[in-house]
Amino acid sequence: MPLRSILAAFSGDPASCSALDFALKLQRRHGAHVTGMLWHGPIPLESRHRAFLSRGTATMLSGREDEAALKAKADFEARVAAAGDPAAASFVDLHEMETVSLPVRARAHDLVVMTRHAAEVGREHAEVRPDVVALRSGRPVITVPDDHAGGVPGHVAVAWDGKRAATRALGDLVQLLGGVERVTLVTVGGAPGSGAAEVVDVMALLERHGFDVAREHRQAGRRIDRVLLETAGAVGADMLVMGAYEHSKFSEDLWGGVTRDILTEAKLPVMMSH
């Protein structure tokens, strides 16, 4: 199934601009439609003190949100005109559709591209969290570093542990991201030959899809997120592909986990599926 529809979460801040630029590079490679989507929830001042605000103050706050949305739309259209295909792009302001969330809208797209960081100071109510989108939408999400200037991926590292989420991520890679030439399957822990039959099968699948495939096995003993990121860097991968939240999100938020740590520390794009 080729990539035909990309949702780019876009607020106009520098981080989301980097994600949009990446989405437009994918658009040029695949001929996909890009939908820029701005989500902004209630302004904290308005939601906490609504009963005490005068009508004039409430109108002023609403007007500022409308101005911010118009500016984001103008920024989106300018970037598409400069680096993409305006005929295959559209913009949606979800503030006008308060009963529909961004993860719900994402279900009608092949892929979500977004930043992994919070919104700028003062715009926290416009923050969209990639882990929440991945969990609630059922769609693969690519998170892009704030200052990413690279191209679309040609060599990806796949974090493979044989579990359901990793299998889903592998399938999304194979089905959506044409143009990737090399895949390095990264395994961590156990003996180098552990799970050998399964790994051989997975590598054979990737080869049948036309990828140049290699395996890198690393011993455990350090934080797995650091092992994965260091290995991706060492083999020259330009994107990491992984399953998200094989354990519950609650436990990872409470005790820490691979998904959360990679979202915090990765310096290259990460595609995650759940």
Primary descriptors:
274 residues; alpha/beta; Rossmann fold; 2 domains; ten-stranded mixed sheet; 10 helices; 43% helix
* Strand composition percent: 15-25%
Count of DSSP strands:
10
Assigned CATH superfamily of the largest domain: HUPs
Q: In order across it, which strands form the biggest sheet?
A: 3-2-1-4-5-10-9-6-7-8
CATH architecture of the largest domain: 3-Layer(aba) Sandwich
Helix content: 40-55%
As residue ranges, the low-confidence spans are none
Largest sheet: 10 strands, mixed
Number of helices: 10
**How far apart are the first and last residues' alpha carbons, in Å?**
19 Å
Q: Which class do the helix and strand fractions yield?
A: alpha/beta
Mean pLDDT rating: 84
The tally of structural domains comes to 2
Task: Give helix and strand order, one letter per element, not per position.
Answer: EHEHHEHEHEEHEHEHEHHE
Shape, please? Answer: globular
Find the CATH topology of the largest domain. Rossmann fold
Describe the structure in brief.
With 274 residues, the chain is an alpha/beta fold.
Give a verbal description of the structure:
The protein has 274 residues and is of the alpha/beta class. The protein folds into two domains: 5-144, 3-Layer(aba) Sandwich (Rossmann fold), CATH 3.40.50.620; 155-273, Rossmann fold (3-Layer(aba) Sandwich), CATH 3.40.50. Helix content is 43%, strand content 19%. It has ten helices and ten strands. It has a ten-stranded mixed β-sheet, with helices on both faces. The longest helix is centred in the first third of the chain and has 29 residues, at 55-83. It starts with a strand and ends with a strand. The mean pLDDT is 84.
